[in-house]
Amino acid sequence: MKVCRRETFNAAHRLFIEDWNEAKNLEVFGKCSYPNYHGHNYTLEVWVDGDIDPNTGFVVDLKTLKHIIREEVIERFDHKNLNLDCPEFDGLNPTAENIAVVIWKLLRNRIDESFKLEVQLTETENNKVFYSGEE
Amino acid sequence: MKVCRRETFNAAHRLFIEDWNEAKNLEVFGKCSYPNYHGHNYTLEVWVDGDIDPNTGFVVDLKTLKHIIREEVIERFDHKNLNLDCPEFDGLNPTAENIAVVIWKLLRNRIDESFKLEVQLTETENNKVFYSGEE
Amino acid sequence: MKVCRRETFNAAHRLFIEDWNEAKNLEVFGKCSYPNYHGHNYTLEVWVDGDIDPNTGFVVDLKTLKHIIREEVIERFDHKNLNLDCPEFDGLNPTAENIAVVIWKLLRNRIDESFKLEVQLTETENNKVFYSGEE
Amino acid sequence: MKVCRRETFNAAHRLFIEDWNEAKNLEVFGKCSYPNYHGHNYTLEVWVDGDIDPNTGFVVDLKTLKHIIREEVIERFDHKNLNLDCPEFDGLNPTAENIAVVIWKLLRNRIDESFKLEVQLTETENNKVFYSGEE
Amino acid sequence: MKVCRRETFNAAHRLFIEDWNEAKNLEVFGKCSYPNYHGHNYTLEVWVDGDIDPNTGFVVDLKTLKHIIREEVIERFDHKNLNLDCPEFDGLNPTAENIAVVIWKLLRNRIDESFKLEVQLTETENNKVFYSGEE
Amino acid sequence: MKVCRRETFNAAHRLFIEDWNEAKNLEVFGKCSYPNYHGHNYTLEVWVDGDIDPNTGFVVDLKTLKHIIREEVIERFDHKNLNLDCPEFDGLNPTAENIAVVIWKLLRNRIDESFKLEVQLTETENNKVFYSGEE
User: Fold this and answer.
1) How many CB atoms lie within 10 A of CB E41?
2) On chain B, which terminus has fewer CB atoms closer than 10 Å, C or N?
């Protein structure tokens, strides 16, 4: 049984590798590398996989999961510039893939080990990523 | 190859453990335990996993699946109070998780064993559960 | 210029006229009149129509509008039984139309007269109503 | 008869009045005023109101409208920082309301006078604005 | 007070003026004029505007409206080829605009004159039309 | 880590087995077998599963994936009649399942073998299929 809580946050970012010059960044990342940033409404789905507690009928209390997501992810990244404001992305290009890994690690510390954890991050209506920690 | 049919139903429920007093129910389930019930538009996705029939090009006929879902789930739960009207939830807290298990079992009886069955139940735009019967 | 804030709430209700017997209620309201209630995820859009404040660039601050909606509507109706818990529907059938009028009146008291007010209430993905107070 | 074309763009912005100090900006605009910008996936609906051409059956060719929107709006604002990159917002706070007015004026120049023009701009799933040019 | 019922149908069509040759049709209508048809999932919203009946709390019974839409629109156009199967489009190019006018007229005959009638027809996620009969 | 690109196309089709007579086709496929075709807005999600490139932070560049999907799928099927225009469906009933397999094979040729490939094809808001190539 898997349960899912959805939350959203809005952030600015640009895709940019410091070791590359502007021309190479533009070639690889296109308009996503424009110097003054752009932004997205990110939609995050957090899936927790485990057994149903026979007392409550919950896998996990989604109210609790909501609070954990808000503390670990929303307060950290909402209305922020991922490149400038968030040390999690020092030296790490804030692609949807990398944001998902960072979020997964932040949440993994807060979710009991007995549960499997997966995150899906939607960046635009056409682009999304899914990370299950199984590398 | 997996195929999916989506159906919806509207029902009232409250989360409530009979063995607990009101205060403990309120502490654990919050406003979901309010005594006079609240309700949801439930969205159900039923996934059936199997091989494509080389004659029809179908895994299963989704019209047939639609009728099975309507007979087993929609007629049973639509516009009902899950706590009061539905014996499936006697002594079983009607959390999204438990509703999904009940639905999965009802449908499992009607879908040929050669197919794997999964259900996803969306309770609100932020909360959903997925059950594949693999416990 | 019109601006819109969207909020959601979950409630139970039944359609039922006290002066009618069960048979007539069932004939007119169908399964919406079932005695033990059913429920919906209601989606409310509140539109405020006025001039842009040349200082802020806002018609109204949507954060303020969000708080007004939560105080007047969400705290009042969320996770409630509209028939049993809400005196606003004493003697008033809680159809989507009547809920929208009640909400419009509650909000009208809190929005400056210089603004026009409209509400849209979505009851299911197929049914919604829109009220602009122009009777 | 009204026809609508939907397009999307992603941009960074902050809400900020230059004549105010940081504290007042923060008080009025909250986290929308954070100094390093945040961003949104903006969804734009452009409505054109007029008679159906009896030859083509179109009010306007939506392919043509698509190209006008892309030239005037998407190329100008997509993957940009509205505060830093876009002279349209020099001295103009890039609220959804003001962005909608700017877009309406850009498109008004390109749509024949015989048609009425309206724009709806969605900033988040909860916030949107609608501008019809009738001030 | 306005109320809305949403229904869907799937149909094939092509945009094509018989008096024009293939080259001109292709120039004006692009790939929408390809000779062997393409198709859409059409989403229809029917809005009825009137006073609330003080007995029922309904403007109109949406169940009744649903049946009228299904009789007049869905049975007529669902899983049909609008050009080949539907005499309503003899000599009338089945653009979204013209389909909306045809639907409006079919429904106007069935809705009491005391109510205003509006239809919105969505052809793709980016293209839609709205017709209120006010020409 | 899986990444997803969404694209859409509009096509006409009918479900029909040449070796069967009209009566049997109608019995099995219902209105989906009507002779003059109907159509859908198909939504395609293409999922690519692999490791994150430590240089770019991408699994695959979604701009590149977009171009591959457009070349292999959209240009081939958009605004086409799958039965009449597309040799991929000669002797193959264009069910959602079979369309998904055809698309998967077309894309599999263009995506590096080191990546797993999955496609989800949505035919209507209620019907969709998912194919991972694991038969």
Assistant:
1) 23
2) C
Residue C123 dihedral angles phi and psi, to the nearest 5°? -95, -40
E75 in catalytic set: no
Asked if E32 is an active-site residue, the reply is yes
Residue D103 and residue D110: Cα distance in Å, rounded?
Answer: 11
As a whole number of angstroms, the distance between CA E69 and CA E60 comes to 13
Put simply, whether A89 touches F (Cβ < 8 Å) is no
In whole angstroms, give the CA distance from residue E1 to residue C119.
Answer: 10
ipTM over 0.90: yes
With touching defined as 3 or more inter-chain CB pairs under 8 Å, the answer for chains C and A is no
Task: Return the partners of chain B (3 or more C-beta pairs < 8 Å).
Answer: A, C, F
Encode chain F (135 residues) as per-residue pLDDT tens digits.
Answer: 999 999 999 999 999 999 999 999 999 999 999 999 999 999 999 999 999 999 999 999 999 999 999 999 999 999 999 999 999 999 999 999 999 999 999 999 999 999 999 999 999 999 999 999 975
Asked whether B129 and A48 are in contact (CB, 8 A), the reply is no
Residue of F nearest to B60 (CA): F97
- Residue A26 near chain D (CB below 8 Å): no
F123 assigned to active site: yes
Which residue's entry shows tokens 């690690």? Answer: A105
Shortest CB distance from D2 goes to which of E29, E95, E129?
A: E129
**Nearest CA distance, D98 vs chain E (angstrom):** 23
CA–CA distance, B11 with A127 (Å, rounded to integer): 34
> pLDDT of B12-23, one tens digit each?
999 999 999 999
Architecture per CATH, domain F2-10+39-131, reads as 2-Layer Sandwich (3.30)
